[in-house]
Amino acid sequence: MITHPLHFWLGKLGVDSLPFVELIKDPNSSTVIGAVAAAIAIGGAVAALVLITWFGKWRSFWSEWLTTLDAKKIGIMYIVVALVMLIRAVIEAALMRTQQMLAVNQAGPLSPEHFGELFSTHGTIMIFFMAMPFLIGLINVVMPLQIGARDVKFPLLNAISLALTASGGALIMISLVIGKFSTGGWSGYPPFTEQAFNPGPGVDYWIWALTLSSIGNTLTGLNFAVTIYKMRAPGMTWFRVPLFTWTALCTSILMIFAMVPLTVATAMLALDRYAGFHFFTNAAGGNMMNYANLFWLFGHPEVYIVILPAFGVFSEVFSTFSGKRLYGYHSLVFATMAIAVLSFTVWLHHFFTMGQTADMNAVFGIATMLIGVPTGVKVYDWLLTMVRGRVRLTTPMLFSIMFMLTFVIGGLTGVILANPPVDFAVHNSLFLVAHFHNMLIPGTLFGMFAAYYVWFPKMFGFRLSERWGRISFWFWSFGFYLAFMPLYAIGLMGGMRRTVEWYEPAYLPWLIVAFVGALLITAGLISQMIQLWVSIRDRAELAVPAGDPWDGLSLEWSMSAPPPEYNYAVVPRVHDRDAFSWMKHHGTAYTAADEYEDIQIPKNSAVAPVIAVFAVLLGFALTWHIWWLTIVSLVGIWAAVIARSFYQDTEHTIPARQVREEHENWLQSLREIKAVTREQETTPANRGLAAEAV
Ligand code: HEM
Ligand SMILES: [Cu+2]
Questions:
Q1: What confidence tens digit (pLDDT) does each residue in 582-630 have?
Q2: Residue 525 beta carbon below 6 angstroms from any ligand 1 atom
Q3: How far apart are the first and last CA of the chain?
Q4: For ligand 1, atom 35, which residue shows the shortest CA distance?
Q5: Which residues are CB-neighbours of 446 under 8 A, at least 6 positions away?
Q6: Which of 50, 238, 257, 471 is the most buried (most CB within 10 A)?
Q7: Which residue's C-alpha comes closest to atom 36 of ligand 1?
Q8: Ligand 1 centre and the CA of 234: distance in Å?
Q9: What are φ and ψ of residue 225, in 5° steps?
Q10: Does 562 sit behind a cis peptide bond, omega within 30 degrees of 0 on the bond before it?
């Protein structure tokens, strides 16, 4: 049915798709906010382009970042994506809190449609484009270093995974400017997300953003798992693998198995929407329960995908900043594995109320409560790691302790929710929203913040400002409690989630407190931006070129900061679980090798950025039904992969002579650096050479 020549070229796109046009047609507070958001998105993109051009950085941006296959840099790019998305999602959260506070017995500033978009983008971004990229980025930076490897097993695949994730994020950003986003929440349940109820582009944006990023994440899981299986340094037996790497392995395995059901679910939903299938509609025998099962078969393990690496971070932080070996290493490893396995046995607790028998609910309720056991083991191990340690309350430690306190509260409300009869009462209420934020903010976000402070000096060669770190910590912590504790109360009083207007004045005081909490959280985020700015400004004073600012235990602290491209001049031999600590005690930490070898490094490749561009076009074209562009972008992606397969010359060699020279220079430079004790680690005296532990 091609009615108009432009229809062929533009699909369903029209002038009406722009928020500015909507604003002119119907000016009100909601459309003003929408237009401002679009303007900020455009402004941000333009500003980035102008800055790169202004500083003449296009060439180095291309050759040092976009085309790099170095896991450390890919990791940093993942983290940049996560931080940009975090800013957007926190602003959206603050907007939702504003709306709900102002919408008691009256319409608030946002239209119901707009509010629906906000909780959908907020949830989708926080999970898929903030938490996931943050932890994948962190694993990329830390894990190969920690196991004594020079890179991940499949560097090009790594870059392609990033390209797919970043394209998904780009689609969500584009939806701010062209058209609308889904109003179906982060879980996108049909039949609400089917064509009949949601004919617009919103759900399609959601489907393609998720599909692209999930494929990227599946590939990442494979890549990390193979790396950890195959590339550990000689001597690193399984029980000498640092805990962070253990959690990275469990998360990778979860990604391999859990992302696929999600991809299947979004693909089937796409078939329903695009080709008139009936997988999830009641027509012709479809059943939406199939969607619920697929989604939560992914969704529950997903919770552990984002939390396990944070557990790894906390383990490293508790032992490093207590100056002690980790207590209960083996039990932590087994608890992590137990959680990973159990996480596949509980998905049904997300729909206790959706019609299965009481027996079935009981089984899944008990399985859910069981997860509390290994988690409890971990908490005891962390506590006992601190006991009799010389605990240093620096920013990462503060975040980790606050995590422990807060996470235990969230865990308790989780055990409450695991009772099917209780869940019938509070299902889909703000009690649930309070519960999962109570797990995810301390569990994932605080873990990522702690990691950011600990490993930032390794990535960039200078520490972050401790003062602003502490300020941000207090804002985030108080903000969290004020923003989310009231939601438990409102939930128990009957307030449902995803509600745009209230008709119960008793909620108002709680909503005001929650709003203040959201403001404090925003202040926490702003402090972190200031922190970054201040730290870059003072980078000379904060520099830690020797590379070991915190008296680290594992191998990633054994080379310069930032590390050389090839990570290790000589691949280390591992004698102990705390491999670097062992080397420091045995006087082998800073010694030159007798012999150096040539090192093979993968050459840069333009494949990933090319795929990124075509993947964005593909998602956009599918969303707007622009079929010619769909075909062009599919062919583009395919051509890029085929072209690459003809490349023979994919590696370049760093000659042994150069490796030796660089290593010896660094060792030489260490002689001019004074070692610091732990008490001095946040002072300018810290140049990254920690005094040997006593
Ligand atoms: C930083 C402070 C945060 C604030 C103030 C905040 C606030 C909110 C609000 C107001 C909602 C809507 C609740 C409703 O349905 O009525 C929401 C939903 C949600 N949030 Fe957050 N949030 C924050 C951080 C996070 C983080 C870190 C994550 C995940 C890592 C997250 C994941 C979600 C998800 C998955 C939803 C559900 C969206 C849906 O209903 O589909 N949030 N949040
Ligand atoms: Cu669950």
A1: 999 999 999 999 999 999 999 999 999 999 999 999 999 999 999 999 9
A2: no
A3: 79
A4: 123
A5: 310, 399, 400, 402, 403, 406, 476
A6: 471
A7: 123
A8: 44
A9: -60, -45
A10: yes
